[in-house]
Amino acid sequence: MLSDSDQSKVRLPGTDRARDPAATSEMARRAARKVGITRVADITRLDTIGIPTYQAIRPTSRTLAVSQGKGVTPELAKLSATMEAVELWHAEQPMPAIATASPREVAGHLGYDVRDLPLSTPTVLHDGLPLDWVAGWSLVDGAETLVPRDAVAFTLARRQGWNPPVFFESTNGLASGNTLVEGILHALYEVIERDAVTASLTGGDRGVRVGPATLGSPVVDELCAMLARAGVALEVRSLPSATGVPCFLARITCEDYPPPFLGYGCHLSSEIALTRAITEAAQSRLGYVSGARDDLRPEVHKDPGPRRAPVPAADGEAIQEAPAHGSLVDDLEDVVKRAAVAFSHAPLVVDLTRDDIGVPVVRVVAPGSRVIPEVF
Asked: Where is this region: Disordered (predicted)?
């Protein structure tokens, strides 16, 4: 599973990767044509903020025809949009089951309780319900296991036959990368992030307001300056996470376009986590400005109520940088250990990579982690 690239990392503005953007762009360009991407559009200038945001258009999609990507640079934003579309394509493809059996029949081969996976509401899951299973393995010890196919695959296409509600089907933990390790790491970050956001939404703990300027990051400072020049107010909160991995919520608002837009970010590096949160908030806003996404919610434009006073970027508690390790494999080892303790079970991974596409794509499923529809 390991490659030479995983023993180090390429440090880029707002992210860490296994390879430089030029190599990733070439891989993404080859895959784009094969998965049906017909256009990658720069929509940055549809808004006044200027944070790079792109859309990848895939008309034959079985989920979303428009995937979005953001980044500190246009090149990284374009890559982000393309790779998201590539990930979705993999999750949409038919996945042959290696077994069809009830949880009771395969309990000895699992090592976890399927009821600890995110379930639909309501759910008909019970020990005797026949399920289709795909192959996965533990991120702690590499032990092989079975994972319910409906917890891995994702499509909005109408299905034939009887399809009882069992698992909460989403894209949570779906990610790609230059290498398998990079993809797994980004998928696990997403699972941890959405667990923290779910805990905040359901438990009422909105976290602690922090001042992005206190981090002393030139990248974050420039993002804050771009928002300020556009007259957009930014509020950042540090969300508690059972894993201890930095997770941030960024909330942006302005008088010209009153609806609040949120972004989230999670990473061992506080700088990268915060950069992701801020750029995602800008991306979310641009999604509604463009109007091209399939999943826009009309209630976003309802009266948001009283306006909040802008919060100066320097206000709030100080953010302490939590630097990541020197290699992606060390980052992954650290995050896996934290997740296994926090969720009381080893995270699992299913490899969705296809040789004909040439992009490492995975789905991480973490028994014990939490996610609800409101997070999406």
From this structure: 1-26
CA torsion, points 321, 322, 327, 328, in degrees to nearest 10?
A: -110
1 pLDDT band, cuts 50/70/90, is: low
216: left (phi over 0), alpha (psi -120 to 50) or beta: left
Q: What is the pLDDT of residue 12?
A: 93
Answering whether pTM is above 0.85, one says yes
Alpha-carbon gap, residue 73 to 337, rounded angstroms: 32
Tell me the two tokens of residue 300: 């976003």
Per the structure block, which two tokens stand in for 356? Answer: 């004909």
Beta bridge partners of 135: 146
Number of Cβ atoms within 10 Å of the Cβ of 356: 6
**What pLDDT digit, counting tens, does each position of 110-147 carry?**
999 999 999 999 999 999 999 999 999 999 999 999 99
The number of residues in the chain equals: 376
The SS3 call for residue 94 is: coil
Other Cβ atoms closer than 10 A to 151: 27
In this structure, are residues 181 and 368 in contact, taking their beta carbons and an 8 Å threshold?
no
Peptide bond into 122 cis (omega under 30): yes
Name the one residue in this structure whose structure tokens are 């059972």.
242
Q: Copy the structure tokens of residue 282.
A: 């800008």
Residues 6+ apart with CB under 8 A from 28: 79, 82, 83, 86, 359
| CA–CA dist 141, 47 (Å, integer) | 47
Q: What is the pLDDT of residue 4?
A: 73
